[in-house]
Amino acid sequence: MNESSSIKLLGELAQGTRGRVVRINAQGSLRRRILTMGLVPGVEITVQGRAPLGDPVEIVFRGFRLTLRKEEANGVAVEVF
């Protein structure tokens, strides 16, 4: 398995998946909002849950829960463990 195959968009990850943020792909105000919430490169995350239709996505990192719409979550690249 090459390294790039373990990089996924946060919005694509299944419940229970663990990983580390490697890049914020979002631009503009969404990028600033994501970074301000503490979702920065190097942070380890766990996908805690998903709504029945897959949107929104709930993640846990640094001891708290954050819910993002799938479109927002797709602005975050994660290295899956």
Overview of this structure, please?
- The protein has 81 residues and is an alpha+beta fold.
- The chain has a single domain, classed as SH3 type barrels.
- It contains 2 helices and 6 strands, in the order ββαβββαβ.
- Strands 1-6-2-3-4-5 form a 6-stranded antiparallel beta sheet.
- The longest helix has 9 residues.
- The model has no long low-confidence stretch (mean pLDDT 91).
What is the gist of this entry?
The protein is α+β, with helices and mostly antiparallel strands and 81 residues long. It has a single domain, classed as SH3 type barrels (Roll), CATH 2.30.30. 16% of the residues lie in helices and 40% in strands.
* Corresponding CATH superfamily: Ferrous iron transport protein A (FeoA)
Helical content (DSSP H or I, runs of 4+): 10-25%
Major beta-sheet overview:
6 strands, antiparallel
CATH architecture: Roll
In what order do the strands lie side by side in the largest sheet?
A: 1-6-2-3-4-5
Strand content: 35-45%
Q: Indicate the overall shape.
A: globular
Number of domains: 1
CATH topology descriptor: SH3 type barrels
Could you name the CATH class?
A: Mainly Beta
Low-confidence stretches: none
SSE pattern: EEHEEEHE
Helical stretch tally: 2
Q: What's the total count of β strands?
A: 6
Radius of gyration of CA atoms, rounded to a whole number: 12 Å
